Amino acid sequence: MRLIAHHILACHAKGCTSNNFPLKFSDVESQNAEAEFSPDFLKGFYPKIEWNVLITTAKEKFIKFGEVSLPEEQPNLEDLDEETLKKIHHVLLEIDVITGKMSCPNCGHIYPIMSGIPNMLLAEHEIA
Question: What is the CATH number of domain 3-63+80-126?
Answer without folding.
Answer: 2.20.25.10
